[in-house]
What we know:
Elements: H1 2-42, E1 52-56, E2 58-60, E3 65-69, H2 70-77, E4 82-86, H3 93-101, E5 105-108, H4 117-131, E6 138-141, H5 143-152, E7 167-172, E8 175-176, H6 178-182, H7 196-202, E9 206-210, H8 216-220, H9 223-228, E10 229-237, E11 242-250, E12 258-261, H10 267-270, H11 285-302, E13 322-325, E14 331-334
Parallel strand pairs: 1-4, 1-5, 5-6, 6-12
Antiparallel strand pairs: 2-3, 3-14, 7-9, 8-10, 10-11, 11-12, 13-14
GO cellular component, one term: vacuole
EC number: 3.4.19.9
GO biological process, one term: tetrahydrofolylpolyglutamate metabolic process
Amino acid sequence: RDLKNTKSAKNSSRPHDTYDVTIHTMQYIIILALLLIISITATHQEINDTPVIGVFTRNDEEFDLDVIASSYVKWLESAGAQVIPIHSQIDDDEELEALFRNINGVLFPGGDDTLTSSVKKIWRMAKEANENGDHFPIWGTCLGFEFMLQLESEIGEAILETDVYSTEDISMHLEFTEYGLTESKMFAGQLPYANVRSIAATEPVTYNYHHDGITPDNFLADRGLTDMFEITSVNFDEQNDLPFVSSMEARDIDLYPFYGVQWHPEKNPFEFCKTCKKKDINHSSDAIYVTEAMADVFIREAKKSSHEYTDFQRFPLVWDYEVIRGLYFEQIFIIPAPVVVSEPLVK
């Protein structure tokens, strides 16, 4: 009887044991799944509340000096970033690599300049960094947008259609592509900018001042461009009856956080263009809302960068430089050519 009762007791406990094991297994699986989700999302979280953006200088015809328009600086600062100048003529690899480690993103600004070796090197560094899991965003505005086209095109600098557009001093609304409407991260409208796409699609809030650009057809015919970028919006130059790509972003935006616009988001709040004939910069609340949304997109990406700004003396912030009133801009920073001192050879 005792043996029978014991056997019965053992048998009766087995379903409970199986139930307990199943529960523990499920809990273990859930914990592993949560840890996996956390590990995946951790790489996309903001880890730096004080990002530093490197902004390339451009040559200013008025002063024959390299400058940065203060509107770019203010635009970036409005989203919580600081700015370090990158002189466009710097060509020292070690200097550029050291600077790259001190910044969390790069802005290629507008202007009238040619593609320099320093821009090419920074672009290459950014691509390699992102491919190795080192998050590093780039934003190109107007000329900077055109640089991005030249850097990825199969035919290089010849990809641009030069002096064919007359979009000079005019604000436009954007004509979104299907990708721009449904998948674009630039116009996704993260809170508090949920209405950015609808405003940009219906109101003239994007200021244009360019004579070069690229047609959508030529863009789509270039394998280098279509491998890297997606067109998010187009516009039309009515005077010359010619369309142009006005916004783009990397196809794999999580791998390459690269954004480019042919228009000028920084001008709406910060430039008044006293020398412009039409003075068509839109200063409305909606235009400034779009400006802020674009800055937010870029600086959110920069806050995911793990680079640390530690070399303050070697790479001073832009406010350490002289700032003066400009003719075409409200203010410009004068950025002298850097003096790169090589380390002495040890014998």
